[in-house]
DNA sequence: CTGAAAGCGCTTACAG
DNA sequence: CTGAAAGCGCTTACAG
């Protein structure tokens, strides 16, 4: 592999000059610049990233954290981010956290160790006090998930509004016994805008209250991620004496699991049990029972996230928080 | 950020000794090893990867190339690979090529520039003569796609056998006018085992021949990747005077597009047109028209690929080629 | 078992 | 505009 000295030797110049043309420094005569360039070409020279990093220069790569790449919501989000970053000449490093705090730290350490210029967190596994320590090493932004009172830019959807309206929509459709599922380990009730999950739940609950309804704890399901989880939720619902007539599934994946198991057990969706998904995955419209769902603006969020990070890189100011709208897509399941 | 010298100073030892405990060298007394370790802990010290790479040491990361992460076949394949690699302490770098030769070179250059220890190619965009140049920089293996006469390990499925049997299956089901779609830009006919696409097509064609049937060029469709492409294919089929009665769609994505457009145009699947997918994506069973499809052994291939790469890393010998079986899953669409 | 020193391939003041 | 030299944080012979 050719090094910078090889290029210098071939061009009959110093490594300093070669380094200057690599870095587009203006202080090089056109003539020498050309001879360096042709020498680089002739040798097929590419600067060794490790050596540049060691000197603390930019890496032109960004890390993006997601729980799991097989989840279409996240693969599309990452895709939107990567496409935008690509255009600007940045590489993207996808880090799957598998919902483990420790893996999220791996991504953050990439920043500390100067392997990336910034990290885009699409999910949140650690407490903010831990994450905020890493802000001194580079740029961090939050996408999709969020917290109140953090000092990094946020790109997110209006979860409260979306869930509030979706719950109202279910009432309008004639449902009144509404179950609720979430991926979280537990449901915490907090003030508005506190975080992603609390907002979803607050929107749900506020609509309930307006309809003079309280919470039925039997109708709350946590830890729901996969279609398999959805099937189990359906079974738990069937075991209940007092059954809900509709469920907000938390994701399309879970919604699919619920409708599948319902079909298996000959329970009619949406007649006997309505199912409301969240995400609007590409396939959701083409399922045996097309999902009524809350569409997340994946592309918009991904693009805005990438743009925000790019602005940060070029030292421009960015909005503290950018909020995209959720939208109810009415199909067959509710 | 703490450096190796900081640790050495705090421990009252030389950097050499610290480096030795970082690299698990046996030539360090237990006592000093402990004091180094506690110094590292106290400072929260992590070796800077760039510095280690510069000295040519292992990176413990692997690159995996795929055309596009939003394609579930590839996201599941990557996932299987990453999980296995994780267990062995390796990180995974996902490189989307967007089917561009140039982006594939990016991944290969990672190897040349010592940013990864190996690359797992799940698709093939460059000619082999270009790729083989990179073998001197580290380990390369081929997964999913393949070529004949390459000198790197291959993990693949038996495309010929799968497509041969699938075509026979279609005949058994009573179809006889079989159309064929592929993601390739063109269909090339080559000897058996030449490559992925040629094998698929050869399997298809051999079955045709055995049924005394020739090729109808109006029934061959290229460049089919997305559901959108599937819709267009359906439209092209409808414009034909002599229509096929079934189509091998090349992927479940394309199959979904075809069935969707068929529904829209009130054409009955599988009555008026049968549709055979390829992949067996998780959702394929739960579509409005559940797909009959050729299942690809994604997990098996991913795991074998990762294992093969790990064996290569530890200098063990590996089989030149490992072949997994394709399987026909009969559902509603054909 | 331990340490001083050279060197990996770059960039960046510092002189000129 | 150009070059000699120091130094980024490590590892690895080389001595001892």
Automatic annotation (TrEMBL), chains A, B:
Its keywords, alphabetically, are: DNA-binding, Transcription, Transcription regulation
**Tagged with keyword Repressor:** no
Q: Which CDD domains does this entry report, sorted A to Z? A: HTH_LacI, PBP1_CcpB-like
Entry keyword Isomerase: no
Domain HTH lacI-type per the UniProt entry, residue ranges: 2-56
* Record InterPro entries: HTH_LacI, Lambda_DNA-bd_dom_sf, Peripla_BP/Lac1_sug-bd_dom, Peripla_BP_I
Q: Which residues form a coiled coil?
A: none
Q: Which GO terms describe its molecular function?
A: DNA-binding transcription factor activity; transcription cis-regulatory region binding
What is an example of a Pfam family matching this protein? Peripla_BP_1
Protein name (record) = DegA family transcriptional regulator
């Amino acid at each position: 592999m050719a090094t910078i000295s090889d290029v210098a030797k071939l061009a009959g110049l110093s490594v300093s000059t070669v380094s200057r043309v690599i870095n587009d420094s203006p202080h090089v005569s056109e003539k020498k610049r050309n001879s360096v360039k042709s020498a680089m070409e002739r040798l097929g020279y590419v600067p060794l990233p490790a050596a540049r990093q060691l000197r603390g220069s930019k890496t032109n790569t960004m890390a993006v954290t997601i729980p799991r790449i097989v989840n279409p919501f996240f693969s599309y989000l990452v895709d939107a981010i990567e496409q935008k970053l690509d255009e600007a000449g940045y590489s993207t490093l996808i880090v799957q956290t598998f919902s483990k705090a420790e893996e999220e730290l791996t991504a953050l350490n990439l920043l500390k160790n100067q392997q990336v210029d910034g990290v885009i967190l699409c999910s949140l596994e650690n407490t903010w006090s831990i994450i905020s320590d890493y802000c001194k090493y580079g740029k961090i932004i939050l996408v999709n998930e969020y917290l109140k009172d953090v000092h990094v830019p946020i790109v997110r959807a209006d979860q409260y509004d979306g869930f509030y309206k979706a719950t109202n929509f279910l009432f309008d459709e004639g449902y009144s016994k509404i179950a609720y599922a979430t991926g979280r380990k537990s449901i915490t009730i907090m003030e508005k805008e506190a975080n992603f999950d609390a907002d979803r739940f607050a929107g749900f609950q506020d609509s309930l209250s307006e309809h003079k309804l309280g919470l039925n704890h039997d109708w709350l399901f946590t830890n729901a991620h996969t279609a398999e989880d959805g099937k189990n939720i359906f079974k738990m619902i069937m075991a209940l004496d007092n059954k809900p007539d509709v469920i907000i599934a938390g994701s399309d994946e879970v919604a699919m699991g619920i409708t599948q198991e319902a079909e298996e057990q000959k329970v009619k969706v949406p007649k006997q049990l309505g199912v409301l998904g969240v995400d609007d995955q590409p396939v959701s419209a083409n399922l045996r029972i097309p999902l009524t769902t809350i569409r997340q603006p994946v592309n918009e969020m991904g693009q805005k996230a990438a743009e925000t990070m790019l602005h940060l890189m070029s030292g421009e100011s960015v909005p503290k928080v950018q909020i995209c709208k959720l939208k109810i897509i009415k199909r067959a399941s509710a």
